[in-house]
Specification:
two-stranded antiparallel sheet; single chain
Length: 148
């Protein structure tokens, strides 16, 4: 994906399960200049602080053995809720014709979840996806990855 061109006015969504930044390429495809359009940040508490319920128990029909059910991963649920909000905001922006082409960069797990949340407009505007966690990079470092 490095060396890929980012057309002028295309949007770049860089996110993970708690941070999302949407940039617009205000430069040209050969020399991108990323301007921050939106930023979403959500601090997630640790899993034990998000949910403290003990695992449920199941009893087999007929009075068989008791077994525990899998605990809910509250941290993963919080990340999924955050990514749903990001996908909805992206869909709304595309609906409002603020963006016509979007490139999404996210870690594999977040990217897989986002794919399930894309609306029809987002799917049509999607210019590409890159499964990397680049949320810590500055706009200049991100732009350098797309410079021609």
């Amino acid at each position: 994906m490095e060396g890929m061109l980012l057309p002028r006015n295309a949007w770049l969504l860089v996110c993970d399960g708690a941070t999302a930044r949407i940039f617009a390429n205000e430069g040209n495809a050969d020399k991108p200049r990323l301007g921050l359009h939106f930023a979403f940040d959500e601090k997630h508490d640790s899993a034990h602080e998000l949910g403290t319920d003990r695992p449920g128990r199941l009893v087999a029909p007929g009075g068989g053995p008791i077994s525990a059910t899998e605990e809910t991963d509250w941290h993963a649920k919080a990340e999924e809720t955050f990514l749903k909000k990001v996908a909805a905001a992206l869909e709304d922006a595309i609906k409002g014709e603020e963006a016509r082409a979007v490139l999404v960069i996210a870690p594999p797990k977040a990217l897989g979840f986002l794919r399930d949340c894309y609306g029809d407009r987002t799917r049509k505007a999607l210019a590409g996806e890159w499964d990397k966690d680049l949320t810590a990079l500055s706009p200049e470092a991100l732009a350098a990855r797309f410079a021609g």
